[in-house]
Design brief:
The complex is a heterodimer. Chain A is of the alpha/beta class. Chain A has helices at residues 22-30, 35-42, 71-78, 101-110, 127-131, 133-137, 142-155, 171-184, 201-218, 229-235, 253-258, 263-270, 280-283, 297-307, 327-336, 340-343, 357-366, 386-392, and strands at 7-18, 45-56, 60-64, 86-91, 94-95, 112-115, 189-193, 221-226, 238-243, 246-251, 290-292, 311-315, 321-326, 350-352, 371-374, 380-384. Chain A has 18 helices and 16 strands. The two termini of chain A are 35 Å apart. By secondary structure, chain B is mostly helical. The chains are: A alpha/beta, B mainly alpha.
Chain lengths: 394, 300
């Protein structure tokens, strides 16, 4: 291993302009006009504006920006799905823009594989057929390509699903297929264009962990695009923030947090507060035991005993949340022959499904019992423990 | 108020009838060899199809319809019904007429698909091809079908061969339109993925675009067959043999029963052909795309 990390991909002064009157746009750009001004005067969209960065082998480089900031265009310029207007992309000391048609196909087949936001899977092929596609078009024999494809399917944890149609899989599983398909080519580099943005937050989390473990195992270089700063901080060895086609700052997560280049970067980092993204419904769990208001104290005790809990949630026949019954009160009810109803603790805090974690944090901190999550009609949907609230924002 | 404001002035005159007549008679005289060759080729093809249908015993055809219906629709009762309907045609003494009609339909549909499918791909892949072919298709679909009969007769004479030509012209637009529509509506990200993995254009077309567009293309095939069947009856006015000619005779002699029997037979053929071609292609990933493209047809 060389002591200094080798640079695998080098992007130099990349520009991508859309429109006819590009020369005029360039002139304006030199004078320092911004994106909207250029669009107004020349009708040219500046998608990528003088972007340069380097990606080291075995590292994850994350490009982050809002939609329209040009990050997707940058990633498509790497494998020439979009022709850069000017600038160069150097991969393993080879200028990708100067490759012949044939060499470019070879580059796409063996060096850089792509993973797409909406998966880009073929619905007329099963999972195996999708994963083996890259090898198939290279002319690899069926047996060999299916063997390799199966290895990758196992790796992403989809064994047993290989003959299913992608449309019958969940979003997270589909993207696993997308990742397996990209890995089957055994590329030097993965180009991932917002691969987890279409997934819901909890699945996204799993996939991020999974991607990290795969990356550690196979030591792939990854160029990852996202608009989610948490995702960027979690995955990125290096992070580049883009805005209006320009790369504003490149650095590690620590560098960015401690030394943001400008207010835009600072605002972006502030938004990394997870508690403003997750809602109660994302972290709630189903309570292990429920007691009906009409149940006798004996039954209540046996339910608690069976589930090994010292308190239980009480509901009426319509699932409406009533309160909490503790073990002591249940024992008292039995010995003194009182009804469950009279001993239920009714001043238990409840939250709504869509309440943000940030908003319910104070409630979670002071409550004796896990918070009860109820819907508009007061029906119990689940419970949120202190631990769940804390771990969701860690 | 002057007269010319009310009636369209006679002084504005543009005669397109005679030039067209002259043009047709010009190619009729000067391209005789070409049309002879076309006639010969089509006659040979028609003969082949006729021969093929001829060697199939009637009960094999009935059995084939029974089995195919069962397999494609998974409904045994429907399979029995269709077989009985086919037997009904024979029992009216119209079996051989039906075979003749079927031969012309099959020949025309083969021609339509052979020409229309590549054209559809071409239209999907280029804006220029689209700009040229689309107005032509619009014209072909709105032109009254009888109009096609005139040049067909002039250039190729009476009989089954001009009928095949007229039917092909009439039936080709849906396969072109739906092939191109199907290919264009393939998810852009899927096509992009194919490119990103290093597919050549040909590989993208064969391995991704056409298979993804298959439900829509099959709807086009179905529509083409239906239109061919509709036209083949009209074509009996220029001497196409088969069920259509029975209808014409029924009209000429005011034999209502005769016309009706032949008409019913056409309907039965249409129903069977329609259901069979709809059932043949079942996409793996649910019927969503096919349903969408059916909606597209209805919306037209």
């Amino acid at each position: 291993m060389p002591s200094k990390a080798e640079v695998l991909l080098k992007v130099n002064n990349l520009y991508k302009l859309y429109g006819v009157n590009r020369q005029a746009a360039r002139d304006l750009m030199k004078k320092g006009a911004d994106k909207s001004e250029i669009l107004k005067q020349t009708g040219v969209t500046v998608a990528v504006n003088n972007v340069s960065f380097e990606v080291e082998r075995g590292k994850i480089f994350v490009l982050i920006g809002l939609s329209g900031s040009g990050k997707s265009t940058v990633i498509r310029c790497i494998n020439m799905l979009q022709q850069p207007s000017s600038g160069s992309v150097i991969f393993e000391n080879q200028d990708i823009g100067k490759l012949s048609r044939k060499e470019l196909l070879e580059f796409r087949r063996t060096k850089a594989s792509m993973v797409f936001q909406n998966f880009g899977l073929m619905s007329h092929r099963d999972v195996l057929g999708n994963v083996a596609y890259g090898l198939e078009i290279r002319g690899v024999k069926r047996e060999e390509r299916e063997y390799k494809a199966m290895e990758m399917i196992k790796m992403v944890g989809l064994e047993g699903w290989e003959h299913q149609n992608p449309s019958s899989l969940s979003g997270g599983m589909r993207q696993r297929v997308g990742i397996a398909r990209a890995l089957t080519n055994d590329p030097e580099m993965l180009l991932m264009d917002e691969p987890f943005s279409a997934l819901d937050p909890l699945v996204r989390r799993d996939m991020q962990f999974e991607l990290l473990s795969i990356q550690r195992k196979m030591n792939k270089t990854i160029l990852f695009i996202t608009h989610d700063i948490d995702e960027a901080f979690m995955l990125g060895d290096m992070i580049g923030i883009m805005r209006d086609g320009k790369l504003i700052q490149v650095g590690t997560a620590e560098e960015m947090t401690s030394n943001p280049a400008d207010d835009y970067v600072r605002d972006f980092i502030v938004s990394a507060d997870k508690s403003r993204v997750f809602c109660a419904k994302h972290v709630m769990i189903t309570p292990s035991s429920l007691i009906r208001l009409s149940d006798g104290s004996g039954k209540a005790l046996s339910i608690m005993k069976r589930n090994g809990v010292s308190s239980s949630y009480v509901i009426d026949d319509k699932m409406t949340f009533i309160g909490v019954l503790t073990l002591e009160d249940a024992m008292k009810a039995r010995s003194e022959n009182l009804s469950v109803e009279s001993l239920v603790i009714r001043d238990v805090e409840t939250v709504k499904e869509d309440d943000l974690i940030a908003d319910i944090m104070p409630q979670a901190a002071r409550t004796r019992f896990p918070l009860a999550v109820v819907d508009e009609e007061g029906r119990l949907k689940g419970i949120v423990s202190k631990a769940a609230v804390l771990s969701s924002i860690s | 108020m002057p007269d010319w404001l009310y009636n369209f002035p006679e002084t504005i005159k543009l005669n397109i009838r005679e030039p067209i007549d002259e043009f047709i008679s010009y190619i009729n005289v000067n391209w005789e060899g070409f049309f002879d060759a076309v006639t010969k080729g089509l006659r040979g093809m028609l003969k082949g199809v006729n021969w093929f249908i001829g060697i199939i015993p009637w009960w094999v055809l009935v059995l084939a319809v029974f089995i195919l219906t069962w397999i494609t629709t998974k409904k045994p009762l429907r399979a029995v019904l269709y077989s009985l309907l086919l037997i009904f045609i024979g029992s009216m003494g119209l079996w051989s007429y039906m075979e003749q009609t079927l031969a012309i339909v099959i020949t025309s549909v083969i021609l339509s698909l052979v020409i229309g499918f590549p054209l559809g791909i071409l239209v999907a892949s280029g804006k220029k091809a689209d700009a040229i072919i689309r107005p032509v298709l619009d014209t072909m679909q709105t032109m009254p079908s009888f109009v096609y009969l005139i040049p067909a007769v002039m250039l190729l004479g009476l009989g089954n061969v001009p009928a095949v030509i007229a039917t092909t012209i009439y039936a080709i637009p849906p396969i072109i339109r739906l092939t191109s529509h199907g290919i264009k509506q393939v998810d852009a990200e899927v096509v992009e993925a194919a490119h990103a993995f290093g597919s050549t254009r040909w590989q993208t077309l064969i391995k991704v675009q056409i298979p993804q567009a298959m439900p829509t293309i099959m709807t086009g095939v179905n529509q083409t067959i239906m239109m061919a069947l509709a036209m083949v009856v009209t074509c009996s006015m220029i001497g196409a043999t088969g069920l259509g000619s029975e209808v014409i005779i029924g009209i000429n002699r005011l034999e209502i029963g005769r016309g009706f029997a032949a008409g019913i037979s056409v309907v039965i053929m249409a129903v069977i052909l329609d259901r069979l071609t709809q059932g043949i292609y079942k996409p793996k990933g649910g019927d969503l795309v096919a349903e969408q493209s059916r909606g597209f047809i209805k919306g037209k």
